[in-house]
Specification:
single chain; elongated
Length: 296
């Protein structure tokens, strides 16, 4: 590959990653209250009895673990979606089938990200307990390490990986399937009609991907949060839930999870596509202007 080709490729990857990071960050910030509501509901933490009290608990202070939660969500989703997109392109270029290229990258990236992020995930969820006496994520991590050792920081990783991997694989499968099924934008590139058609396609695949990823993995969210709450193994948690609640535990927090998970996944995909389109149009305009200056 020529030097100019390498530079263009590097510029394209940088633009792609910047769009993923920006979209993930915006979605994480906007959706933090929804994540907090789902964490409280799925974990079975004690809530206020009336609607006003519940809304105050979800949207009001204290905002413990906000920065760590937003950081964890941002880099995790950006890494999963960016790694899955670039991994898929590379595998296709190596002659792999579309099914392999659409499955292997999200499985690998989601598993790696979830394990790496697990201490943040566990501590931020535990902080949402209204009865928690820890002031921040660092103190919660220190308390876990001091009382239960380093293994406690990664407790629940099995449930988290089992929940996260299918969630993102399903979301990415559905996103790619909807994108392939929808007609390509018919309007000329650069026109307002073309931008509207691109955004409509992005909205459709974003909503479908978010709902699919959230609905199919709600039971594993419940199991993971219960493991955090009672410090049990995966098997112990499932046995206890089936004994006390039956299969109804699979639906616990479903309504909130559909919002808390579907909204950020869908928003991440939509905002990433929007930012990517904006950045590409900016780069195209810059290249066109540079070419015109060179000709003069």
């Amino acid at each position: 590959m020529s030097a100019s080709g390498s530079a263009a490729s590097g510029s394209g990857l940088s633009t792609h990653f910047a769009a993923h990071l920006g979209g993930s960050a915006c979605a994480a910030i906007v959706n933090f209250p929804l994540w907090k509501a789902a964490a409280i509901g799925q974990s079975g933490f004690k809530e206020a009895a009336d609607f006003v009290g519940r809304m105050k608990l979800i949207f009001g202070p204290p905002y413990k673990g906000v920065s760590a939660t937003i950081f964890g969500m941002t880099w995790a989703r950006a890494a999963i979606f960016f790694g899955s997109d670039t991994g898929k392109e590379w595998l296709l270029s190596q002659g792999c089938s579309a099914s392999v290229a659409s499955t292997v990258p999200p499985v690998g990236m989601a598993a790696f990200v979830q394990v790496a992020n697990q201490p943040i995930v566990r501590s931020t969820i535990m902080l949402q307990n209204p009865a928690s006496t820890q002031p921040n994520v660092l103190s919660q991590l220190v308390e876990l390490y001091r009382t239960r050792g380093v293994k406690a920081l990664y407790h629940g990783s099995s449930a988290s990986v089992a929940k996260t991997v299918p969630k993102y694989v399903c979301a990415i499968w559905v996103k790619d399937w909807v994108a392939a099924a929808l007609p390509a934008p018919a309007a000329p590139s650069g026109t307002r009609e073309h931008r509207v058609q691109v955004l409509n396609r992005s909205a459709a695949k974003s909503v479908a991907a978010g709902i699919a990823g959230a609905a199919l993995t709600n039971p594993l969210d419940v199991i993971r949060n219960e493991m955090f709450k009672f410090d049990e193994t995966f098997g112990q948690t499932v046995t206890r839930l089936l004994r006390t609640e039956g299969w109804a535990f699979c639906l616990r927090g479903m309504q909130r999870n559909l919002v808390a998970v579907a909204a950020p996944i869908g928003m991440t995909i939509f905002l990433t596509d929007t930012l990517l389109d904006q950045l590409r149009r900016r780069d195209t305009s810059s290249e066109r202007a540079a070419s015109q200056r060179a000709q003069h």
